[in-house]
Give the backbone structure.
Amino acid sequence: MSVKDVVQATRGRLLRGSPDVSLSALFTDSREVKPGGLFVALRGEQHDGHGFIPQAIDRGAAGILCEQPPQAMDDAAVIVVEDTRQALFDITADRLRRRALPIVAITGSAGKTTTKDLIAHVLGRRLRVHKSEGNLNTYTGIPMTIFQMDPRDRALVVEYAMSRAGEIRELTLAAPPTIGVVLNVGLAHVGFLGSIDAVAAAKRELVEGLAPGGLAVLNADDPRVRAMSAVARRFTQYGLASDASVRAERIRLHGLEGSTFTLATPRGKAEVYLRLPGEHSISNALAAAAVALEFEFDGPAIASALHGFTPPARRMNIVSGRNGATVIDDSYNASPGSMQAALHVLELAPKGSLKVAVLGDMLELGDHAARAHDEIGSLAGKTADVVIAVGEYAPRVVESARRAGLAKERAYVVEGADQVVAALAPLLTPQTQVLVKGSRGMRLERVVEQIREGS
């Protein structure tokens, strides 16, 4: 994309620089700017990107998109607009107008990233797919993802995350999805939205914002998601429910090694071996299968692709720990739903194992936080042999685990990652299975790094 393209898309004014300069990528964080990129100065609640324009230029930005021109413009092209946030969406919409390719968008309270990667992996068997990486799933991340598309890409797969009402609607206005996948509605972000019904309404914005003729892919096992069919012009449902169009039959869980099941679709059946543990992983795989059917995949092709999938980092990764222990690294993030799913995976550990749950706080739950941590503690007390909790709500988790039947000396609070590692040290043997899970802000990946084999 050139400076001229950005000026036209945003209806901005080019104050200096050549309109023919090519821009390699888009950045909203001056610390991440790479030479040749476009830095967009956004005004946020805590920081104003205009104050970081000099740093962006120092890092090699070829273009600056701003509301207020910098005093020293140096060598970068400078484009001025009324609203840089709106300009982000204008660039996104313009970029997509130039490329008529299908967009698959995924939202949900848990499982978005794994499902996004599953869908991209399956579709990637037949066509070149561009997908959002890392946490590029917000009003800043989606434009960055779309800006970096290659002319050879034939499909776009992205997460639509949100922390407030209207945020997904904004994304769909700039990038209307061809297929919208809604995985589940849980308490994640309820602290911002107030109630689980408000969370459902925010997720429903994806279905309401589909492109004309777009397909809603809905989880039939979640009542709030199933109800979204009422606002969908075209939809399909997946899940374990008998009336789901895409469903799993004859499920067999094989501990941490994954599962096998019969994939039933309108185009026939196929046997699937999924190398992801837990029943929740089957649900994510079914969502990917439902999307693949829209791309004319048949059952055997979907089954083959699902078998070849490995999970992204820190999301249900099974890794070797010290002294032969097994570590279930699910440390990337946590919500009540995903925490429950992870504890049920720990429950699948081989008979005779010492099952240890290292649990960090689940953030952004607002008034629901205390009860949610009580419930997780109770479940942990029934599924784990040892519970090690860290964070503000750790005492509630531990107390609930003890009330559920865990001995006092087998459920305890520690202060941080180093203390978790110290508590784990005497427990690590070839018979030990350790689950590590907490919200992103807890940074429990530090625990995994210290107890991995060879650390």
About this structure: The two ends are 44 Å apart (CA to CA). The chain has three domains: 3-84, 99-307, 317-451.
